Amino acid sequence: DGGITQSPKYLFRKEGQNVTLSCEQNLNHDAMYWYRQDPGQGLRLIYYSQIVNDFQKGDIAEGYSVSREKKESFPLTVTSAQKNPTAFYLCATTGASGSYEQYFGPGTRLTVT
Amino acid sequence: AQKITQTQPGMFVQEKEAVTLDCTYDTSDQSYGLFWYKQPSSGEMIFLIYQGSYDEQNATEGRYSLNFQKARKSANLVISASQLGDSAMYFCAMRENIGYQKVTFGIGTKLQVIP
């Protein structure tokens, strides 16, 4: 099946630990994105990547890091510098033609205590 | 200034009735795209409908239509014949020409369909 996978669905960490969220796609899409969603809020862009080995900061990049070594993969690391890491994290991709609608993964709910 | 404004935090609609979810946007670009997404309680985001700024006809996809009023910068979503499964959060979003693959989302409207 073509799509986007994010693992795990639920993740628990202690404060002060770095944690990496996985995002893999087999849609052959060039662009990939990470969003954060807080309760009752819309999506806020953390990082995005338009091609392999290149990525740009979004609106709330502080305390996060990414890599894009392969077209299929765009992992997000939530570092200990992120002050409020507990949130729902969504990964998305965009195709290269048409309306550029985004395709989303199922999300990872991160809880840091 | 907010780029996407959704002023209805919550809406109720009777099953089988139509409902309009409001969205206004702000951009100085001539070329842009507008999207609506649905987010059920499970969390995944589902693409519903797209309207390009140069499209003269309002977009339609099944029971969804987008009421695009360019001069007023509004892109309201109309859901006809509401079903119980339509209960979800709905997000309006915009892709601007500058940084063309960057998308901005509104804060969403929670729709509840009443049997």
Description:
The complex is a heterodimer of chains A (113) and B (115). Chain A has strands at 4-7, 10-13, 19-25, 31-37, 43-51, 54-57, 64-66, 76-78, 87-94, 102-104, 108-112. Chain A contains no helices and eleven strands. The radius of gyration of chain A is 13 Å and the shape is globular. In chain B, 0% of the residues lie in helices and 51% in strands. Chain B has no helices and twelve strands. Chain B has strands at 4-5, 10-14, 19-21, 24-25, 32-39, 46-52, 60-61, 64-69, 74-79, 88-96, 103-105, 109-114. In chain B, the strands form three sheets. In chain B, strands 2, 5, 6, 10, 11 and 12 form a six-stranded mixed sheet that branches. A four-stranded antiparallel sheet of chain B has the order 3-9-8-7, with no helix packed on it. In chain B, a hairpin with a 4-residue loop joins strand 8 and strand 9. The mean pLDDT of chain B is 93. Chain A binds chain B through residues 31, 33, 35, 40-45, 48, 50, 58, 88, 90, 92, 94, 99-107, 109, and chain B through 4, 33, 35, 37, 42-47, 50, 52, 91, 95, 100-108.
Could you give the count of β-strands of chain B? 12
Q: Give the % helix of chain B.
A: under 10%
Class by alpha and beta content of chain A: mainly beta
Q: Secondary-structure element order of chain B, as H and E?
A: EEEEEEEEEEEE
Please tally the β strands of chain A and state the result: 11
Q: Whole-Å distance between the termini of chain A?
A: 36 Å
Helix content of chain A: under 10%
What value does the Rg of chain A take, in angstroms?
13 Å
End-to-end distance of chain B, in Å? 38 Å
* Computed CA radius of gyration of chain B, to the nearest angstrom: 14 Å
Shape of chain A: globular
* Structural shape of chain B: globular
The largest pleated sheet of chain B is described as: 6 strands, mixed
